Amino acid sequence: MVARIAAQAARAAQSRRAAIPPDRGGPAAPHASAAVLTGSVRLHLTMDLPYPTDVARVCERIQQDVAERVAQLTGLRVGEVLLTVRPLVTAANTSRRRVR
């Protein structure tokens, strides 16, 4: 249940912080796993991010957003949010060529 909440929070944060639309036509939905132990949780998220982007800044903000949302909805203390970025996603229109 905690992992499902974290995945939904990650999808919302991904959309807000990385400008990735939350529709099904975009990149794969974030994946989340959670390890709960005595009122605390460790989260591991895996998600796509667009290219170009400031990966470090966006990841930090997503981690904060997810930690806050999971804590708010579950009442658990979030001890750690580990975020793995899958290969960066380029813009949908990659067929444009340079004009010479």
Distance between the terminal alpha carbons, to the nearest Å?
54 Å
Beta-strand portion reads: 15-25%
Number of helices: 2
Widest beta sheet: strand line-up? 1-2-3
What is the overall shape? elongated
> Which spans have pLDDT < 50 for at least 5 consecutive residues?
93-100
Cα gyration radius (Å): 15 Å
Helix content: 25-40%
Secondary-structure class:
alpha+beta
Number of strands: 3
Average pLDDT works out at 85
Characterize the main sheet: 3 strands, mixed
The SSE order reads HEEHE
Brief characterization of the structure:
This protein is of the alpha+beta class and 100 residues long. Helices cover 37% and strands 24% of the residues. Helix 1 packs antiparallel against helix 2.
Task: Tell me what you see in this structure.
This protein has 100 residues and is of the alpha+beta class. Strand 1 (31-37) and strand 2 (40-47) form a beta hairpin. The protein has helices at 2-18, 55-74, and strands at 31-37, 40-47, 77-85. The termini are far apart. The chain contains 2 helices and 3 strands; from the N terminus they run αββαβ. It has a 3-stranded mixed beta sheet, covered by helices on one side.
